[in-house]
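User: I've been going back and forth on whether these two constructs are worth ordering. Before I decide, could you fold them both?

Assistant: Sure. I'll take them in the order you sent them. The first construct and its structure tokens:
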Amino acid sequence: MWAVIAVDHAGPAPGAARQRLLADHLAHVQRIVDRIAVAGPLRDADGMITGSLLVLDVASEAEARALIAADPYAEAEIWARVDFHDFKGVAGNWVGGRNW
């Protein structure tokens, strides 16, 4: 699995672009939903979206990068930075409690 943290550019422009591209972004998410363990927007203290978090159930960083590169948000350069982390879920509700 790969955890992907995508941080938006600062300012109001990413929010407007997110809204404009939301339907296309969600269509992309639907196409790859079988490879997503969990995903959703990151928000600041005021509730404004500041980025995205995805945990992708894929075997390699290259596959994770390809899925993210195909996202309309990536293509529109909404994200200022995208970090990829090799990840193993070992505790929590979505892994069934604990897994060690």
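The second construct, handled the same way:
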Amino acid sequence: MLTLWDLVKRVIHPARAPERGKGRAQEHRPPKAAVGGTGGTGDRPPGAAVRRTAEERYERVTREMLAKHGIRVRRWRRAMTGIAWEVRYRDGTVARLIEAPRPKGPMSAAVFLHEVGHHVIGFETYRPRCLEEYHAWAYSLATMEALGLNVTEGVRRRMHQSLKYAVDKARRRGLRALPPELEPFTRPWAGAGGRRVRRLAGARGSARPRG
């Protein structure tokens, strides 16, 4: 028989409930995998690391090419066009300048390296002017391949259209003897599948003023 004191003790010192999970096997759940799969962070979308690696490669190529050939970028262009020129001072120093898109992908890298190519091969080294354009483009694509950059079908099409424009312009101005290197660029772009495509509006070679 319970007394009044027994009821008071239960109110003051209630019996402890058994600990949750005690006496049975504990459930172990593996930690959630981080989204993105790299760096242990969960806020990177898939492919972010790959894109960052590509950006770093293009940035490194840009820095190295400018430093190697002593070229200064006057302005980064938004359009896929460029210009290269040099300024000679009375004391004999020469400033090598370009405007081009900042390399972030195959096309912008090709245009950038094309302008660099004008300085590397030297102005007035090749005549007529369309032949200089050919060698600047050849330098661009060869450099991309040597550096492991992707030379896409779009880049090759841009080269062809640019050189066809240069050849047509030279012929309109009275060019008589066409260098054999430029013979393939007298015809429209055929592409990898042999299908001819129309020249894109504004596909031109590099224009450059004389310093």
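Notes on the second construct follow. Strands lie at 71-77, 83-88, 94-101. The radius of gyration is 33 Å.
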